[in-house]
Every structure is written in structure tokens, then in C-alpha cells.
Amino acid sequence: MKHLPIIALDFPSGQEALAFLEPFEGTPLFVKVGMELFYQEGPAILDALKEKDCRIFLDLKLHDIPTTVQKAMNRLAALGVDLVNVHAAGGKKMMHAAVEGLESGTPAGQSRPGIIAVTQLTSTSEDMMNKELLIDRPLQETVLHYGQLAYESGLDGVVCSVHESKVLHEHISPSFLTVTPGIRLPNDQTDDQKRVATPAFAKEQGVSQIVVGRSITKAENPKEAYHQILKEWE
Ligand code: C5P
After folding, report:
1. Alpha carbon distances (Å) from 193 to 13, 83, 207
2. In a designed cystine with 97, which of 49, 60, 70, 164 is the match (CB 3.0 to 4.6 A)?
3. CB atoms < 10 A from the CB of 205, how many?
4. Distance of CA 108 from the midpoint of ligand 1 (Å)
5. How far is CA 106 from CA 99, 111, 132, 152, in A?
6. Residue 98 domain-assigned?
7. Chain-wide mean pLDDT for the chain?
8. Is residue 112 pLDDT above 70, yes or no?
9. Is pLDDT at 55 greater than 50 in this prediction?
10. Which positions make up the signal peptide (predicted)?
11. Element of type H or E holding 225
């Protein structure tokens, strides 16, 4: 079975996130806690989600000097989440330090959380990257380069768009995780995302794991939307 789609719990409070999950009672879920929810609720929200048997991707996208990231990862490792991430733009030393911090902080007898690197945000277009960030290369080339740096630094995979997953698997390793946000059902709004794709196309591209937020959380019937995505995905 493929990995479950990850539901992005982009809610301003734990109360709203947990109320959203109520109709899913009894369904095994993999959820993503991002900055908004974590900064509001702290580690308590992770405990509440674990009580519901959710697997958790803690999406805090660390990006700082290597020592700071190492120490922060040491602390995150103790929270008992399944997946964490950093920005690949922090460079190899920082990513390597992140893995070390995670390993040193993982409690004895537990396996260390997976760690992936954000390549280019799925809200970034090539035009914006070239003209605003002055990175004068094709977007796919920078994603592949960041992916290679992440692989050489000992990370388990990357966050990328569906459109880059195949090239990453071909050039790096088929087992290198590609976790892809920017997922939309055919009639959904793209919102602020630029490089979007459907779950079916993600599957076709060999994506390892999809992340879906608003297509589920803003749907009229979130449970139905989730199952539609799951069906396309599996
Ligand atoms: O609502 P939507 O499906 O666009 O949500 C996507 C989620 O994935 C958001 O929580 C966003 O922060 C996250 N994400 C992303 N692009 C990345 C990394 C994370 O959209 N490169």
C-alpha cells in the first residue's frame, strides 16, 4: 500500500483542528502540523493527535545556522513525530547538522523521525525565482540540485512539486522520498500554489507521498473529499 495522503491541518487553533478531525474518528490518518497550529498550541497538539493514533509530519521548515538547527532538531526528536523538515537552501552543513541533532535527540528504543528538505516552495514560480530571488537557472535544475545536496547530507527525501518527482527519482534514487504539496482535485481553486497537480497525476509520476490541505479542509464535505483523494491515490 502507498503511504497515506497527509492532511495539512492548517487551522488557527487546536480546537478547530480537532473538531475538523471528528468525522474521521476510526480512520487511520497521517496529518501535517504546520507553523500556525504549532506556534499557537505547542507540543500539546501533537499529544492530542497521537491520542487519536494520527501519524504526524511536523512541518516547521527549519532554516538557520547549523548549530541552531542541530539543537532544535535534538528537541523536536523528543516529540515523537514521524516526519520533520528543513529548507535545503540552508546548505549541506546545516542539513547534516539537522540529521545529527535528530539522531542524538531520539529517545532510546525509538526510531528517529524521517527528515526531508524543502527544495523550492510550490508557491514559487520559475519567473519569481529568476527575477525576484535572482536564481538564474531553470526551476527544475535548482530542485534537482537541492535534492542532491539533501541526499548527500543523509536526509530521507525532499518536499517538491509533483512535476519534479520523476526527475529526482531518476537522478538520485527511487527510494528517496518525494513528498508533494500543491495537490488539487480537478475543479478546485489553486489558491496561492503555482505548481499544482491532481492525486492521479501524482501517482502516475511515482510521488512517494502527497500533502493535501485546502482541497480537504475547505471542501463542503471533507471526509468525502479525503476519500476521493485516497481512491485516486491508491
Ligand atoms: O492547502 P494546500 O493543499 O495548498 O496546503 C499545502 C500545505 O503544504 C501547506 O500547509 C503548506 O505550508 C505546505 N507546503 C507547501 N509547499 C512546500 C512545503 C509545504 O505548500 N514546498
Report:
1. 23, 22, 18
2. 70
3. 18
4. 32
5. 11, 7, 39, 21
6. yes
7. 95
8. yes
9. yes
10. none
11. helix 222-233
Q: What is the pLDDT of residues 10-41, one digit of tens each?
A: 999 999 999 999 999 999 999 999 999 999 99
Pocket lining: 194 vs ligand 1, CB cutoff 6 Å: no
CATH code (residue 21): 3.20.20.70
C-alpha cell at 211: 500533502
Rounded distance between C-alpha atoms, residue 58 and residue 55, angstroms = 10
**Gap from CA of 118 to ligand 1 centroid (Å):** 11
Which residue from 173, 171, 234, 169 is spatially nearest to 206, judged by alpha carbons? 169
Mean pLDDT of 78-102: 98
Number of domains present in the structure of the chain: 1
Query: Nearest CA to 176 among 113, 104, 108, 114?
Result: 114
| Residue 166 falls inside a structural domain | yes
Could you tell me if residue 110 is inside a domain? yes
**Which cell numbers in the block locate residue 30?**
497521517
Domain membership of residue 65 as a residue range: 6-233
Residue 172 lies in a domain: yes
